[in-house]
Write a structure and sequence with these properties.
The chain has 462 residues and is of the alpha+beta class. It has four domains: 86 residues, Uridine Diphospho-n-acetylenolpyruvylglucosamine Reductase, domain 2; 119 residues, Uridine Diphospho-n-acetylenolpyruvylglucosamine Reductase, domain 3, CATH 3.30.465.10; 109 residues, Alpha-Beta Plaits; 91 residues, 2-Layer Sandwich (Alpha-Beta Plaits). Helix content is 36%, strand content 21%. Strands 12, 13, 14, 15, 16, 17, 18 and 19 form an eight-stranded antiparallel β-sheet that branches. A five-stranded antiparallel β-sheet has the order 5-6-10-8-9. It has a four-stranded mixed β-sheet with strand order 1-2-4-3. A hairpin with a 5-residue loop joins strand 8 and strand 9. Helix 1 packs antiparallel against helix 3, helix 8 packs across helix 10 and helix 13 runs antiparallel to helix 14. The longest helix is centred in the last third of the chain and has 20 residues. The chain is globular and about 70 Å long.
């Protein structure tokens, strides 16, 4: 429980009804989609930038940790209050302030739900491509904080590629505005890009300007079915090598399909080794040509069957099942660990093979999904955190997966972020110099170290 004087001060800022102190309420803000958890001292729910500014000024003077929180859907521990303190819940910031059709952009508050924003802009014939798995629950501010991606990242990029400007409250309470509605902006350092993906360690977003693009005229979905997991992985690489740029290019192995089908039956080929889902979009004339090229590549790489969705309803059924993958799999094991390893696309067959070797070595159960068009693999470990022996093997397997990905020229995270879970690997990828530079940036903006402590950066040696 936070200090009573601090609680009274917070109540004076936002009102008693927007300050939570009961244990039952605090538990709701103690965890995210990982198995990390820690009770905050207090939860405060501001409604204006001025209120956030006053909260931060108060926390800075009191040297109390502050943890910004959106939908809490991240899966790397980024919104867990690892050192207690004040959770600043941003769900009252839920306005779409403006959709500017003349300048193809939108001004929003960070608590807007991703799917609702996409629906609103598509009603106007516009398109906001970033589509994280949890889009029906995730907030736009959380997407910016973690630089969220999703299946459409292959063709359209990730959240960072659509952020034009930000309003952010700094740890000392000052308000910073960066970027704007212009497409071109090369004034000084690119602070917009620096702050995007900062996982709440540098400040709290209160307003975001997003770039929008025209909604594609048409789209088609194809499923290619394989009897060998490496053939499926090679089909992904071959599609890209053939200069085909699908909207999405997703990989599922047999275990993943079996678990999805058990929960949400949609006709996935559970008797095959793997399948890839491909969506193409574009003009009415171009889409049939693209889907035909993808089909030819997949057959050449050994696909035993090709299924092209005959209707939008049939395509939506497949993609709805794919989006429900994590919740479907959660029914099959007490603990679900969704990892996020990314390699150059040409290395996908090697990474798939390596994951199979590692999981066999450590005797753990894994299903593999992946946004393989951009080299992003999601080994989903089905385990039980109460089994200490198995959890030790799981940790060793995860270490080896990340080591292998880095040796292949990959990265620690394609879209989930670092949070608590990958802090220990940061120097593996960035080296001591890279970590030192990031620490210097953190100290420059947050000298008291109060913003989301313990995330992204490993602790300094004493």
């Amino acid at each position: 429980m936070a200090d009573s004087n601090l609680i009274r001060s917070l109540q004076n800022i936002v009102g008693k009804e927007h300050v939570l102190t009961d244990k039952e309420d605090l538990i709701c803000y103690s965890y995210d989609s990982t198995f990390n958890s820690c009770l905050p001292g207090v939860v405060v729910i501001p409604g204006t930038t001025e209120e956030v500014s006053r909260i931060m000024s108060l926390a800075s003077k009191a040297a109390v940790p502050v943890i910004p929180r959106g939908g809490g859907t991240n899966i790397c521990g980024a919104s867990v209050p690892a050192r207690g303190g004040i959770v600043v819940a941003m769900h009252r910031f839920n306005r779409i302030i403006e959709i500017d059709t003349a300048n193809l952009c939108a001004v929003v508050e960070p608590g807007v739900i991703t799917a609702e924003f996409q629906r609103r802009v598509e009603e106007l014939g516009l398109f906001f491509p970033p589509d994280p798995q949890a889009l029906n629950m995730s907030t736009l501010g959380g997407n910016v904080a973690t630089n969220a991606g999703g299946p459409r990242g292959f063709k359209y990029g990730v959240t960072r590629d659509y952020v034009l400007g930000l309003k952010m409250v700094l740890p000392d309470g000052r308000v910073l505005k960066v970027g704007g509605k212009t497409v071109k902006n090369v004034t000084g350092y690119d602070l917009t890009k620096l702050l995007t993906g900062s996982e709440g360690t540098l400040g709290i977003f209160t307003e975001i300007i997003f770039r929008l693009i025209p909604l594609p005229e048409a789209k088609r979905t194809l499923m290619a079915i394989f009897d060998d997991i490496l053939d499926a992985a090679r089909a992904v690489s071959a599609t890209i090598a053939a200069r085909i740029i699908p909207t999405t290019l997703e990989y599922m192995d047999r275990e993943a399909m079996r678990l999805i089908e058990a929960s949400r039956p949609c006709g996935l080929p559970v008797n095959s080794a793997a399948a890839i889902l491909v969506e193409v979009d574009g003009s009415e004339s171009d889409v049939p040509v693209q889907i035909k090229k993808v089909e030819e590549v997949c057959r050449k790489e050994g696909a035993r069957e090709i299924r092209v969705a005959a209707s939008e309803e049939e395509a939506n059924q497949i993609w709805t099942a794919r989006r429900a993958a994590f919740s479907s799999m959660a029914r099959s094991a007490p603990t679900l660990i969704v990892e996020d390893v990314t390699v150059p696309r040409s290395m996908l067959p090697d990474m798939v093979k390596k994951i199979a070797e590692i999981t066999g070595k450590y005797r753990i159960k894994v299903a593999i999904l992946g946004h393989t068009g951009d080299g992003n693999m999601h080994p989903i470990i089905l385990t039980d955190e109460r089994d200490k022996n198995e959890m030790q093997r799981v940790k060793q397997a995860i270490d080896e997966m990340f080591r292998a990905a880095l040796e292949m020229g990959g990265t620690l995270s394609g879209e989930h972020g670092i949070g608590l879970d990958k802090v220990k690997y940061m120097e593996w990828e960035l080296g001591a110099t890279g970590v030192d530079i990031m620490r210097r940036m953190k100290r420059a903006l947050d000298p008291g170290g109060i913003m989301n402590p313990g995330k992204v950066l490993p602790p300094e040696d004493n």
